[in-house]
Write a structure and sequence with these properties.
Layout lengths: L4 H9 L8 H19 L9 E9 L5 E7 L12 E10 L2 E8 L26 E3 L4 E4 L2 E7 L2 E7 L5 E4 L6 E3 L2 E7 L5 E6 L14 E4 L17 E10 L2 E9 L5 E5 L3 E6 L4 E6 L4 H12 L12 E3 L7 H14 L5 E4 L19 H13 L3 E6 L3 E2 L5 H9 L4 E2 L2 E2 L1 E4 L2 E4 L6 H17 L4 E4 L11 E3 L20 E3 L39 H4 L3 H17 L5 E3 L12 E2 L7 H16 L5 E2 L1 E2 L8 H11 L5 E3 L14 H16 L1 H14 L4 E2 L18 E3 L3 E3 L9 E4 L4 E5 L6 E4 L5 E4 L7 E4 L2 E6 L5 H4 L4 E6 L6 E11 L13 E11 L2 E10 L1 H5 L3 E10 L2 E9 L2 E2 L7 E3 L3 E2 L13 E7 L3 E2 L4 E8 L3
Parallel strand pairs: 19-20, 19-34, 20-21, 21-27, 27-30, 31-32, 33-34, 44-48
Antiparallel strand pairs: 1-2, 1-5, 2-3, 3-4, 4-18, 6-7, 7-8, 8-9, 10-11, 11-17, 12-14, 13-16, 14-15, 15-18, 16-17, 22-26, 23-24, 25-26, 28-29, 35-36, 36-37, 37-42, 38-41, 39-40, 39-42, 43-44, 45-46, 46-47, 47-55, 48-53, 48-54, 49-50, 49-55, 51-53, 52-53
Helix pairs in contact: 6-7, 7-9, 11-12
The protein binds 2-acetamido-2-deoxy-beta-D-glucopyranose (6 copies).
One 2-acetamido-2-deoxy-beta-D-glucopyranose binds next to loops.
Organism: Musa balbisiana
InterPro entries: Gal_mutarotase_sf_dom (IPR011013), GH (IPR017853), Glyco_hydro_31_AS (IPR030458), Glyco_hydro_31_C (IPR048395), Glyco_hydro_31_N_dom (IPR025887), Glyco_hydro_31_TIM (IPR000322), Glyco_hydro_b (IPR013780)
Family: Belongs to the glycosyl hydrolase 31 family.
């Protein structure tokens, strides 16, 4: 949503009411000045590195432990830590950990209870060990090697000898508030990740773009800047000698950092914590995300309905307006599963309350009964800031349990939408139990189906140490600018946490770390400094919220979080935050979505049609045509924009019916991708190189993407375009809107596809079997309809095979797993060999889908030659009793227009076997012959 108070910030600080970059520009002027000044004097040497004093190997395979001594101390950014402890372990066959910390003192690291993982031995622990005399330490495909003086380390891939990481490129520096380490990178390395950030250059990281990681309420319209989340991980994809390999590197650290990527090196500059590297061996992109999510937690399973379409707006003034929106979708026959409220339902923006006038509870409950009975869902927003108001129960109970973040022993005072607030401390076990209880109470008040946790970077309208003003009220009654700070505040510069020696490029302007967030010298439970835990705030809130919903409803939780960290994907979905209704923002949304797939957070999308200002009708058409294929598909707008529900324009409604119509047919495929994501970390929306890693032309491709392994989406991203230039890896790609059209690609030359205003280009790749259903206007209806299997062979094939699968369950259970009676998983196979075609299934678990009565009504085979004859169908190995109803339909020749060299045309057939009613969950097989015709 919204709000970017980042946007608000700008609105309030420039005299024009149109959001502008003026404010940021002003900040830059002052900081640039300082930078130039610094650059004039040669920067002092920050460190001289370390020397390895000793290294031992634990005799029970517990890893290497080494000790390092600083070579020479410097005072730049504070004194060096004299002695370091190195711990190296091949934690699995494909994961290597290199952990470096102070040998004497415990240092801050991401808490093990928030992100469960193995703990290195405590400093000074004595295990039976013997001196390690080699300079290489191998495990799986990764080899760790090191030099002693100076101490540097490298990671190599055993199978092809590539050096993946090599710290000898720079000097390792380790101070209390400044850590630096670099790696050399070969020119062949294509890098991805390091977010959250809006990347105008597309998904592939660009040399010399800034990558600053620090969670901040800065809207997504700001390019190359630290946005809402922090994900210090990158994937490195290299194609050397025609064979691509991928690996990833995670620096697990929650402190603010700048990452400098030059194209031939990468340097981390981190302001605290320690160096805790994880190397994931790959070697395929899918293996990388599998290994990554094994460590950080598998993506959260989503309920089926969450894959439907969502509508939201900040500014649904009352319940009648919301009811009207639901009716608007119904009348326009546009699918809708979930209706949302931003904060309009709240009483004076206070969490867990209802506005008694505009959202009276009895009427709201009636409305929810009505939509729930249709299978639709309702989600509302909450913010972390709790209004300071002694007659507000949530606040009273929080005070009684002492759950708020402190500054000098008292709750830290900030300002958000309700006015003065305190921020709950989700690192405090009492804070978590209080939050769980408040959510349970709220659920009694309103049976919501999910929660949207916003503003959790955390966003604060004020900066520094603030007090309630004594000479005026705050918020100012009737204020039309509730985002302007009305507390009495003073900036904090007096501690090294508020004003650390090294300034990361926070907010793209080297803003103070505490700027418009919690003061970095504030403290959490157990004295934990906000300085260290800042970027974990949204993550810790998601953990608490997940516990609350899981325990409460006994159902699979749905949470949408704006701020995220490593591991958030196991709990929540994400949207890309406040964007603009511009063609550029439409394009940026693809890269950010794909990045979150790499971050283990596949349920992601952008505000469709843009959060603000008014989109053009044409843009909104194109946006729903793309957004219908975001894993998380939601239209959302700001109160200041005109209404932009998809039915507001007839042309947009038509595009929505087309695009969402296909999405709702694809729901079984999307739900199976959701299952795969949960089981293996595989992103739902993927860069093209995930399926075609050897196809180097796709390494920077950010204008198209894959859903799963084999559905290509090629959206229009330009104004006034009626065609789209798209790139297709070699092979046949069939249009999902018109299966008589195919692209047969032989190389990386782009193909021009027709794209009139209401049309979408989505193609399925050869060798695929895609499970579709009939669709519908909500997922509850759609999921009971009969299935069609689309079998795609290479164009004109007389030899080929294809496969696919489907996962179904009832999504009422918190876990998504294959358990007999609770879920079904069926694999589909097909072959064509000469004139013989065979399509069959292998049932891993079938009872659930049988009980639900799910049926396959049609099999549609693409790419064959000739006409089908002599159909034989068997179920469970016996001739199928209802075979009389089975027949070939549309089996006459259909022209495929292949884009071939010289514009030549070839034809093949679409063979539909209709009139089936094969129970999904029983094995079937069908064979027939293709006769020669024409
Ligand atoms: C990539 O190319 C290599 C070498 O030709 C080959 O072994 C490998 O199977 C290819 N990978 C894919 C996914 O096509
Ligand atoms: C709800 O809000 C709309 C738009 O402001 C207004 O026209 C309508 O009268 C309101 N309805 C009720 C019941 O308050
Ligand atoms: C405090 O909360 C109560 C109850 O929700 C509300 O009626 C009152 O207006 C609030 N006071 C202020 C100053 O916001
Ligand atoms: C309230 O007092 C502060 C500090 O003295 C001053 O800056 C501010 O202008 C005063 N505001 C009003 C509304 O009087
Ligand atoms: C506090 O710091 C912010 C950010 O650097 C700056 O814009 C503002 O002017 C400062 N306020 C005061 C009172 O110094
Ligand atoms: C800081 O970030 C801004 C915004 O992306 C960028 O323009 C600027 O070059 C960055 N500064 C440095 C020193 O990286």
């Amino acid at each position: 949503m919204w709000r970017s108070s980042g946007w608000r910030r700008r609105m309030s600080s420039s005299s024009s009411s149109s959001p502008s970059l003026l404010h940021l520009a002003l900040c830059c002027v002052t900081t640039l000045f300082a930078l130039h000044f610094c650059a004039a004097a040669k920067p002092p040497k920050v460190g001289f590195g370390y020397r390895l004093v000793s290294i031992e190997e634990s005799t029970n395979g517990g890893g290497l432990i080494g000790y390092l001594q600083v070579k020479q101390s410097t005072s730049a950014y504070g004194p060096d830590i004299p002695h370091l402890r190195l711990f190296v372990k091949h934690e699995t066959q494909d994961r290597l950990r290199v952990h470096i910390t102070d040998a004497e003192e415990q240092r801050w690291e991401v808490p093990y209870d928030l992100l469960p993982r193995d703990q290195p031995p405590p400093p000074g622990a004595k295990a039976s060990s013997s001196p390690f005399t080699s300079s290489e330490y191998a495990g799986g495909d990764l080899i760790f090697s090191f030099t002693s003086d100076p101490f540097t380390f490298a990671v190599r891939r055993k199978s092809n000898g590539q050096t993946l990481f090599d710290s000898s490129y720079g000097t390792m520096v380790f101070k209390d508030q400044y850590l630096e380490i670099s790696t050399h990178l070969p020119k062949t390395a294509a890098l991805y990740g390091l977010g959250e950030n809006t990347q105008p250059g597309g998904i592939r990281l660009r040399p010399n773009d800034p990558y600053t990681l620090y969670t901040t309420d800065i809207s997504a319209i700001n390019l190359n800047t630290d946005l809402y989340g922090s994900h210090p991980v990158y994937m490195d994809l290299r194609n050397e000698g025609g064979e691509a390999t991928a690996h990833a590197v995670l620096l697990l650290n929650s402190n603010g950092m700048d990452v400098f990527y030059t194209g031939s090196s990468l340097t981390y500059k981190v302001i605290g914590g320690l160096l805790d590297f994880y190397f994931f061996a790959g070697p395929s992109p899918l293996a990388v995300v599998d290994q990554y999510t094994t460590l950080i937690g598998r993506p959260a399973p989503m309920p089926y309905w969450a894959l439907g379409f969502h509508q939201c707006r900040w500014g649904y003034q009352n319940l009648s307006v919301v009811e009207g929106v639901v009716e608007g979708y119904r009348n326009a026959q546009i699918p809708l599963d979930v209706i949302w409220n931003d904060d309009d339902h709240m009483d004076a923006a206070k969490d867990f309350t209802l506005d008694p006038v505009n959202y009276p509870r009895p009427k709201l409950l009636e409305f929810l009964d009505r939509i729930h009975s249709r299978g639709m869902k309702y989600i509302v927003l909450i913010d972390p800031g709790i209004a300071v108001n002694s007659s507000y129960g949530v606040f009273q109970r929080g005070m009684a349990k002492d759950v708020f973040i402190k500054y000098q022993g008292k709750p830290y005072l900030a300002q958000v939408w309700p006015g003065p607030v305190y921020f709950p401390d989700y690192l405090n076990p009492d804070g978590v139990s209080w939050w769980i209880d408040e959510i349970a109470r709220f659920h009694e008040l309103v049976p919501v189906d999910g929660l949207w946790i916003d503003m959790n970077e955390a966003s604060n309208f004020c900066t520094g140490k603030c007090e309630l003003p004594t000479n005026h009220s705050c918020p100012i009654p009737g204020s039309t600018t509730p985002w302007v700070c009305c507390l009495d505040c003073k900036n904090l510069t007096d501690t090294r946490w508020d004003d650390p020696p090294y300034k990361i490029n926070a907010s793209g302007s080297r803003a103070p770390l505490g700027f418009k967030t919690i003061a970095t010298s504030a403290t959490h439970y157990n004295g934990i400094l906000e300085y260290n835990a800042h970027s974990l705030y949204g993550f810790s809130q998601a953990i608490a919220t997940h516990k609350a919903l899981q325990g409460l409803q006994g159902k699979r939780p749905f949470i949408l979080s704006r701020s995220t960290f490593v591991g958030s994907g196991a709990l929540a979905a994400h949207w890309t935050g406040d964007n603009k209704g511009t063609w550029d923002d439409l394009r940026y949304s693809i890269s950010t979505m794909l990045n979150f797939g790499l971050f283990g957070m596949p349920m992601v999308g952008s505000d469709i049609c843009g959060f603000y200002p008014a989109p053009t009708e044409e843009l909104c058409n194109r946006w729903i045509e793309l957004g219908a294929f975001y894993p998380f598909s939601r239209d959302h707008a700001n109160f200041a924009s005109p209404r932009q529900e998809l039915y507001q324009w007839e042309s947009v409604a038509e595009s929505a019916r087309n695009a969402l119509g296909l999405r709702y047919k694809l729901l079984p495929y999307l739900y199976t991708l959701n299952y795969e994501a949960h089981a293996t970390g595989a992103p739902m929306a993927r860069p093209v190189f995930f399926s075609f890693p050897n196809f180097t032309s796709s390494y920077g491709l950010s204008t198209q993407f894959l859903l799963g392994a084999s559905v290509m989406v090629s959206p229009v991203l330009k104004k006034a375009a009626t065609s789209v230039k798209a790139m297709f890896p070699p092979g046949t790609w069939y249009s999902l809107f018109d299966m008589t059209k195919a692209v047969v690609s032989q190389d990386d030359r782009s193909v021009t596809l027709d794209a009139p205003l209401n049309a979408v280009n989505a193609h399925v790749y050869q060798n695929t079997i895609l499970p579709l259903q009939r669709g519908g206007t909500n997922s509850k209806e759609a999921r009971t309809t009969p299935f069609t299997l689309v079998v795609a062979f290479p164009f004109g094939a007389t030899q080929g095979d294809a496969k696919g699968c489907v996962y179904v369950d009832d999504d009422e259970r918190p876990e998504m797993k294959l358990a007999e009676g609770e879920a079904s998983y069926i694999e589909f196979y097909a072959t064509v060999s000469g004139s013989t075609v065979k399509v069959w299934s292998a049932v891993e678990m079938g009872a659930f889908s049988l009980e639900k009565g799910l049926l396959i009504e049609k099999v549609c085979v693409l790419g064959l030659q000739g006409n089908g004859q002599g159909l034989v169908v068997e179920v469970d190995g016996e001739p199928w009793a209802d075979a009389a109803g089975a027949h070939f339909t549309e089996s006459h020749a259909v022209m495929h227009q292949a884009k071939l060299e010289g514009g030549s045309k070839r034809t093949s057939m679409i063979v539909e076997v209709g009139g089936l009613s094969l129970p999904l969950g029983k094995t079937f097989s069908m064979t027939w012959k293709m006769g020669i015709n024409e």
